[in-house]
């Protein structure tokens, strides 16, 4: 009896406990459903909004007359937008389907496939065989390293890759390689970001059949892409001004690795094309345009359920250059003809450069250069565009700088306009004789005669006086203060743009060699005064001569003169967005009458029968003024032998009574100083400019 009562009590207790637990469960479920139900429902239905940038056509580049230089060619393109939750197996399935619809079998496609790509693809295609590559014993050895689960799996995978044989890696058929070429593009894409699978030679049939089957190809889409093209390209594929215009990365290159963070912080996608050199790089922010922003709405599994356009895209703004492409081509033609003729018997002569600028505005009218380059593999010598040499290479310029030397003499008070000095060989104790090209000397001459006849000794005496030695004593010591002398001259030369950056709107400008260095000998200060110590770029020389031409204002040279909105019609120029006005960098600290006096000396160089430029500058009707230059300098070009050679230069402007064009010519590394190639080039460039101006004035 007692046992029955005890049994019923225990059974009732169990039922009671079950009831309590069940009641608690009901209460808990009720709380979840009633109190937190909406929160959990929202979490289940959660949507993620991801902003996606889509690229737009890049801005165009026009010359100063409105002619198109660089534009965009539309391309049919096939893209892949990777869902955030897609598996490799799903991507492979899509790649296999896409491979039946398009061709991706070019040499470039297959060449881009790396060994790692082949290894990963082989494992994906042969999962069972891949597992057999790593035995249980191997796995046990790896586990001894006390790795976490991810590191363990990674180590197993790496060992699997290492054990794939060459035969297995080379076992893919052409069809499988096409799938791999597509798959690797898909795998390298970023989540929810359009990635180009193919944009070269997409046929009408490919484009149409992919478009018709988009429902079977998750993430794949058809769109219009663009490619950069240059309208000024000859039959050999050479592009006028190519080195200055710069290049744009391809969709495969995408963002440069060294600037990845910079561009991504500004909303770029990794496969976006950007300017990677010179104008395309300098004006990237302008040319890139306003990207279309689309918000991709996904559920919590990463599936895109909606798309919303937040901002429509807008093509990049267009650049209008100060450069006249018709004139640019004429200048390049002149350089190529003259350089080709002059190279006979000249083993070191391989280049020539011409910078042309409006001295009043700073507009760069032409930036031309040609360079002969020998291909080491074929042995063939080709002539390449070397326009950038005007700002990236520097040379001892010789006597073209003597205008700055004379003006430095005025500014320091060691001479004044019409000062007379005795030009005769200078014999200093312990040094070689220093003399003019007329070895017996010109005798007692004034500053204008010194400029006209290009007297070295006149300039030596100016430098000597600036350095503190006022009197020359034959066979006596050269006792100048070389620090004071070189620093004073350099400071004055800097005012004209010599030895400092010109400020041109291109990256990579060089300043030349010598700045800040104190010469070992006092005689080097005298050499500086005739342009045979520091080196300068051709662009610095044209800024220097422009500063004299316009009365003492150093104007910043500019390649781009305007930024324009893209045209609504698609062709031609749109409204002006920004105009670049002339930028005066500094006014030289010299009297106007001093500059006018030196300008008279430069006029005599070309127009007086005794002037050093008189015999070779034939086109006197254009009222040309300028200064010739010849400098003996050590060859530092690509050949292994380094002899002493001659640099031939010229810097001038026209018309001398109202300058509108200034130019510099630099032809380095001749074995003779008897050539007139510098003056022949200058004469023809002036002629080309004024004939083109006259032709246009007639409406031809």
Automatic annotation (TrEMBL):
Compartments reported by the entry: Cell membrane; Membrane
InterPro entries the record matches: Beta-lactam/transpept, Beta-lactam/transpept-like, PBP_dimer, PBP_dimer_sf, PCN-bd_Tpept
Pathway the protein contributes to: Cell wall biogenesis; peptidoglycan biosynthesis
Annotated Gene Ontology cellular component terms: plasma membrane
Membrane topology: Single-pass membrane protein
EC id: 3.4.16.4
All residue ranges annotated as the Penicillin-binding protein transpeptidase domain in the record: 353-685
Chief place where the protein resides: membrane
Catalytic class of the enzyme: hydrolase
GO MF annotation, one: peptidoglycan L,D-transpeptidase activity
GO biological process: cell division; cell wall organization; peptidoglycan biosynthetic process; regulation of cell shape
Penicillin-binding protein dimerisation domain ranges (all copies): 55-307
Catalytic activity: Preferential cleavage: (Ac)2-L-Lys-D-Ala-|-D-Ala. Also transpeptidation of peptidyl-alanyl moieties that are N-acyl substituents of D-alanine
Keywords of the record: Cell cycle, Cell division, Cell membrane, Cell shape, Cell wall biogenesis/degradation, Membrane, Peptidoglycan synthesis, Transmembrane, Transmembrane helix
Pfam family, one: PBP_dimer
PANTHER family found in the cross-reference section: PEPTIDOGLYCAN D,D-TRANSPEPTIDASE (PTHR30627), PEPTIDOGLYCAN D,D-TRANSPEPTIDASE MRDA (PTHR30627:SF2)
Stated family: Belongs to the transpeptidase family.
Name of the protein described by the UniProt record: serine-type D-Ala-D-Ala carboxypeptidase
Organism lineage string: Bacteria, Bacillati, Bacillota, Bacilli, Bacillales
């Amino acid at each position: 009896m007692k046992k029955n009562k005890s049994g019923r009590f225990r059974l009732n207790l169990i039922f009671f406990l079950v009831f309590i637990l069940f009641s608690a469960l009901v209460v808990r479920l009720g709380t979840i459903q009633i109190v937190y139900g909406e929160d959990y429902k929202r979490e289940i239905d959660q949507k993620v909004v991801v902003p996606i940038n889509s690229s737009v056509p890049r801005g165009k580049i026009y010359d100063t007359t409105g002619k198109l230089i660089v534009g965009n060619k539309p391309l049919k393109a096939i893209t892949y937008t990777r869902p955030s939750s897609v598996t490799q197996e799903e991507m492979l399935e899509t790649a296999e389907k896409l491979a039946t619809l398009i061709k991706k079998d070019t040499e470039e496609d297959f060449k881009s496939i790396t060994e790692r790509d082949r290894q990963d693809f082989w494992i994906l295609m042969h999962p069972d065989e891949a597992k057999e590559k790593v035995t249980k014993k191997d796995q046990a050895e790896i586990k001894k390293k006390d790795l976490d689960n991810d590191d363990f799996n990674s180590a197993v995978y790496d060992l699997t890759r290492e054990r794939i044989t060459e035969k297995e890696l080379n076992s893919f058929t052409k069809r499988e390689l096409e799938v791999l070429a597509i798959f690797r593009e898909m795998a390298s894409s970023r989540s929810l970001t359009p990635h180009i699978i193919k944009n070269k030679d997409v046929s009408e049939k490919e484009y149409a059949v992919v478009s018709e089957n988009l429902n079977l190809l998750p993430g794949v889409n058809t769109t219009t892409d663009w490619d950069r093209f240059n309208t000024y390209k000859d039959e050999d594929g050479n592009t006028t001004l190519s080195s200055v215009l710069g290049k744009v990365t391809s969709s495969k290159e995408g963002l440069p690795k060294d600037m990845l963070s910079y561009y991504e912080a500004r909303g770029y996608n990794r496969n976006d094309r950007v300017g990677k050199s010179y104008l395309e790089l300098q004006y990237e922010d302008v040319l890139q345009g306003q990207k279309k922003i689309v918000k991709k709405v996904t559920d919590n599994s990463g599936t895109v359920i909606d798309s919303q356009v937040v901002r429509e895209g807008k093509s990049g703004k267009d650049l209008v250059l100060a450069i006249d492409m018709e004139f640019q081509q004429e200048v390049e033609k002149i350089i190529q003809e003259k350089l080709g003729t002059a190279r006979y018997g000249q083993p070191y002569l391989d280049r020539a450069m011409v910078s042309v600028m409006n001295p009043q505005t700073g507009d760069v009218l032409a930036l031309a250069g040609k360079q002969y380059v020998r291909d080491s593999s074929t042995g063939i010598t080709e002539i390449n565009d070397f326009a950038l040499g005007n700002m990236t290479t520097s040379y001892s310029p010789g006597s073209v700088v003597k205008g700055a030397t004379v003006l430095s003499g005025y500014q320091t008070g060691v001479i004044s306009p019409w000062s007379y000095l005795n030009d005769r060989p200078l014999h200093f104790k312990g040094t070689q004789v220093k003399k003019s090209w007329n070895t017996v000397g010109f005798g007692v001459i004034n500053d204008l005669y010194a400029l006209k006849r290009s007297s070295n000794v006149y300039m030596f005496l100016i430098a000597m006086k600036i350095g503190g030695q006022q009197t020359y004593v034959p066979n006596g010591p050269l006792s100048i203060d070389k620090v004071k002398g070189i620093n004073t001259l350099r400071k004055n030369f800097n005012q004209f743009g010599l030895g400092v950056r010109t400020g041109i709107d291109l990256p990579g400008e060089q300043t030349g060699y010598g700045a800040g260095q104190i010469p070992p000998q006092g005689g080097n200060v005298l050499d500086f005064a005739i342009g045979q110590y520091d080196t300068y770029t051709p662009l610095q020389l044209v800024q220097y001569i422009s500063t004299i031409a316009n009365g003492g204002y150093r104007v910043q040279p500019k390649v781009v003169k305007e930024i324009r909105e893209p045209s609504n019609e698609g062709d031609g120029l749109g409204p002006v967005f920004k105009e670049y006005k002339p930028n005066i960098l500094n006014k030289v600290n010299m009297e106007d009458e001093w500059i006018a006096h030196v300008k008279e000396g430069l006029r005599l160089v070309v127009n007086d029968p005794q002037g050093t430029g008189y015999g070779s500058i034939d086109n006197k009707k254009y009222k040309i003024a300028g200064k010739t230059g010849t400098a003996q300098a050590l060859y530092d070009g690509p050949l292994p032998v380094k002899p002493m050679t001659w640099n031939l230069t010229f810097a001038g402007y026209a018309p001398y009574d109202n300058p509108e064009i200034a130019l510099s010519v630099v032809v380095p590394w001749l074995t003779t100083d008897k050539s007139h190639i510098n003056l022949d080039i200058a004469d023809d460039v002036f002629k080309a400019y004024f004939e083109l101006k006259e032709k246009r004035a007639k409406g031809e």
